[in-house]
Amino acid sequence: MLRKENVHFRKTNKNTVVKRVREVYLRNDIPCLSTQCPKEPPCHEAVKVESSLLSAEQDYYLIPDYSVALRYVELLEQEELTHIIFTETILQRLQSEDKSRTYKSLRQVAKDPRRRSVVFSNEHCKETNVLREPEESIEHRDWRALVQTAAWYRRHLHGCANIILLSEEFNQEDVLRIDDTTGIKVMSLKEYLTQFWPRTAVLHELLTSLKEAILEEDLENKTQGSTTSKKASGGTGYQEYKPLSELEAGVKSERFFQGVMRVRANHRDQAFIRGDANIGEIVIVGSEHRNRAVHGDVVVVELLNKSSWVAPSTHISYNPEEVHAAAEDEEESSSGVRTREVKPTGRVVGIMSRNWQPYVATLQEGSEKEAGSFHLVLPLNPIIPKIRIRHHDAKVLANQRIVVRIDSWPVNSQYPNGHYVRSIGPAHDLDTEISAILIEHGISVSQTTQGFSEGSLKEMPINTPERPWVADPAELSRRRDLRNHIVFSIDPPNCQDIDDAISIKEIGNGQIEFGVHIADVSYFVKENSLTDLEARARGTTVYLSDRRFDMLPKVLSEQLCSLRHHVDRYAMSVMWTLDSEANVLTTWYGRSVIRSACEMEYEQAQGLLNGKDVVPGLDAKICKQLKPSVVLLAKTMRKVRARRMAKGGLELESSEVKFKFKEEGGGISDILPKQPLEVHQIIEEAMVMANGYVAQRIYQGFRESAMLRHHPPPIESHFKMLLRAAESRGFSIDTTSNLALANSLRECAAKSENDIEFVKLLKTMATMAMSEASYISSGSMEVSKYAHYGLALDFYTHFTSPIRRYADLVVHRQLMSCLLGSTPQTTDNSSDFLRNGLKMEQVAGHLNYKNRESKLAQKDSTELFQTLYVLQKTRNPAAVENGGNDPEAEDLPFIETGIVSEIRENGFFVFVPRFGIRGPVYLKEKSGEISIPLSALKQSSAGESDHLVTISGCEMDTDSMTQISVKVPPQALRAHASSPNVLSLVQFRLFDKVKVALRLKKSLAHRHTIYMTLIGLDHQATPAAVSGTGKIGSRTTTVAPMKSHSGRLFKKAGEQLQQDEVKRIAQQDPSLAPLLQRDLIQGIQEGQQQQQQQQQKKGGKNSRKQQQRVVDLEEVYYQSRPESSLYNLIESFDRFRIVESNESPSS
Ligand SMILES: [Zn+2]
């Protein structure tokens, strides 16, 4: 071993340069990390390799130089680029120049096994180490080092692979040093992309965009260098960050606080960090105090003077796009109940690390018409600030959703600087919006990876009509043959990826043999195969409302693994012998082969269970054969479930909905709340049982690294909302344990039998208080903490869905390893992975993240389709008749009954269970004006147009968060003296049923959002007597029901009445005119607008003026844009298919 000295210069925080001498021990056993290694054994054999190896199939490897690594890291991150050799030279230099973000990104690429990229320790390799010559620049020495490395690779691999040195800085002299015959090429990124990726526009666009950003940055640096007052913040109000040393010292001495900054989703002016245990949450208000930090950044905060502390906001945001995020905020705020106490308030003084992501954004309206190449874009996610990008031709970006990234945020710049990455399509086009959802949740940043790689597909078994897959006789002989058992599956209709099947029969002595059979995915997907790595990276199949993104290639997920009927399928089975009381006598685990008799649907199984002899869709013979099994299964699972419930298992509620799509013409035909059937519970119970048993079994074999799923008890304070809500109805809820909670909820349900919605909402509140369940490695916490609170089980894991969840696949491997004992059949290093607690913890963390993002994407897609449904329902045919471009056409009313689900300072949230839609009703405008529709004040004979007449100047009272009352002043009432039975006070309580009109706030830059306008209490729907309270009994319940009309008729009638009403009131009392509401006045204006419109159409040239609203209750603003895009969503409906989600509701 040779000793050598390497000299480095390092810039310190104080901008002085220090010389560092590092001793390097040169070795001659540094591995090449290529599968082409001609040595015997290959030189990487001796070392533990973290990454995957450079593969033999690639005929060239890439070595980026420092100029590329530093400034084009994003291009290297693109999944198309593989087989990159990251040299120690550039990594060391990134570190020494404090480019830790770039350094981490490169490491990340090397770590991703799908990228087949490696880190080569060239500085430690005897043959590639290069000494710096006297007077030689660092850049030049480093360049020589890379050339040396390239030459070594050529020699070592006997010229099997060409080497491409990527450089944006090389000059002629350096190029000449490379002999053309060596198989080493020097290329700029442009040359490389042109030669190897000529048609991959995404890469070319990104390169152009990065080059522009770099130009810009260089320019800025120059101008900054020339001005003396570097600290001038240019009126932005931002301040320079404190030096790192001061930040670190400040955090240590508790003068500063460090944490991840989160912007409140429903009030983006407010951000917060969690300080230490003593101080709790620290609020950061306004962009000046946020000081250029972006949501997710790790920041250092200094507290403000106590006199400047503020209380978090308790009103519903008036910003439409913030409102729909309100539910998310529930988890973020520590109490779940809004308090008005002041909280520690601070400002950001430094940033420890940035969390900048690719953001989906839209060009600020009109920006494309402005001169110059700088433009502001508005991120789709309203908590991300506007970003300034450079683009030479912004016209092509107008009305498009684009992906942008932030590069820097100088102190003198109001907005961060970023660059354009690529365009994903026209705004409000369905496919675009779905892509946006995926990108925002990190599900597939590159559209090219939605498919599986060629390499992965090559690993797949062949199953074509010509060459159907058949079970291997040798494999069959190793498996328990269950083909003579009656096995069946129960799933939603059209289920393609059938993970689980069941068998059950009486075996005498009152005993039952019960089996759960799960697709044997681990047989087909070998550990560390390309398919395995891809599945691990994806983590889960993502189910959106109208489509799904599979974790595994279709040949497995829909064919060979899927437990289809009438074919032999490999399974992992758990077989129990149960006594007549469903107590477990024996358990058997192992590989099996099954032949399902029937792919049943839930409805069909429920039919058999209800006693039917024949159910639609199944032939009589099958029904006769399966009915006893289904009945026995139900009988058995009821017992198992009852025992689990007695231990504290919770029956929770979610507001999940299903979309039904029109078969022809596109569009949503209906939204259906998920219909709970008993058979759902029965299947769920069987799966819970299997998961619980497998969890115990793998824990026996893997004390330190079993993949378990735990559900910690909720934080007590999260129950506040639930407790208050129950209290408002006269119930008390015991939350001391899951059993106590379950019993309390059951009691509420029993006493409120006639109010199903109340019970549902209460359970939903309980669900919202729950902590998140997550995967853990058993070694990471004490055994006592493994428990699953919601299911009331001491051990739990995910075993039953390996086709669509990676965790289950790991669990299958662990189970197999346990069953085979300590000597696994395979000789690869799989047991190493399964036994490595640390690695398992990492995988668990990754899967938790993927799971969460997938759920959020699902939620976003549900909201997108709900919005579409409202758009569809409220769309005025008049607008469509004019080619869909008449935004002045009034929306049609879409009236529904909902429940008051949350009271706020300026209004309340209403939940419409029919559609699973939650939205705000504002009683107080942004200006402070409080108003209420006439219809809400009438106890009886409310006219159809009464909700269009709004009484302003009211007073409001919300001292408790369970009720809100509006008082109407006498002078406002006078105008309606002719109307009989007009109340002067109206109260809204939590759980009250109200009639609302669902409306849509349209936006270009953001998603459309749903809001509601009040019509009044739904006296009909509110039961006269609610048990357990008595408080509500005093309210009058004699109101004529609203007559139902077809939308169009209603509209006509409404228009007429509206205008009559205006005239009448105006005649009676002219001073009331300002109190008249938007809709009212709009009626008068409609005529004028139509005239204007016609003039514009005649003129042709004039751009349409923005529609003026007289009383701007909810800040509805129509953006001027090509109106056709509004309806693109609807029109693109026929382009997609319906996919059923196979998600079980809990666990
Ligand atoms: Zn080698």
TrEMBL record:
Keyword Repeat: yes or no?
A: no
Where found in the cell? Cytoplasm; Nucleus
Q: What is its main location?
A: cytoplasm
Q: Which InterPro entries does UniProt cross-reference here?
A: Dis3_CSD2, NA-bd_OB-fold, RNase_II/R, RNase_II/R_CS, RNR_Ribonuclease, Rrp44_CSD1
Q: Where is this region: Disordered?
A: 1027-1047, 1086-1109
Q: Which segments show compositional bias classed as Basic residues?
A: 1098-1107
> What Pfam families is this protein classified in?
OB_Dis3, RNB, Rrp44_CSD1
Q: Which reaction does it catalyse?
A: Exonucleolytic cleavage in the 3'- to 5'-direction to yield nucleoside 5'-phosphates
Q: What Gene Ontology cellular component terms go with this record?
A: cytoplasmic exosome (RNase complex); nuclear exosome (RNase complex)
Q: Which cofactor does it need?
A: Mg(2+)
Show where the RNB domain sits. 479-821
What terms describe the molecular function in GO for this protein?
Answer: enzyme binding; exoribonuclease II activity; RNA binding
Sorted alphabetically, which keywords does the UniProt record give? Answer: Cytoplasm, Exonuclease, Exosome, Hydrolase, Magnesium, Nuclease, Nucleus, RNA-binding, rRNA processing
Which EC number applies?
A: 3.1.13.1
Q: Where is the composition biased (Low complexity)?
A: 1086-1097
* Keyword flag Cytoplasm: yes
One GO biological-process annotation of the entry reads: rRNA processing
Family, per the entry? Belongs to the RNR ribonuclease family.
User: What protein is this chain from?
Assistant: DIS3-like exonuclease 1
Species classification? Eukaryota, Fungi, Fungi incertae sedis, Mucoromycota, Mortierellomycotina
What is this protein's gene name? DIS3L
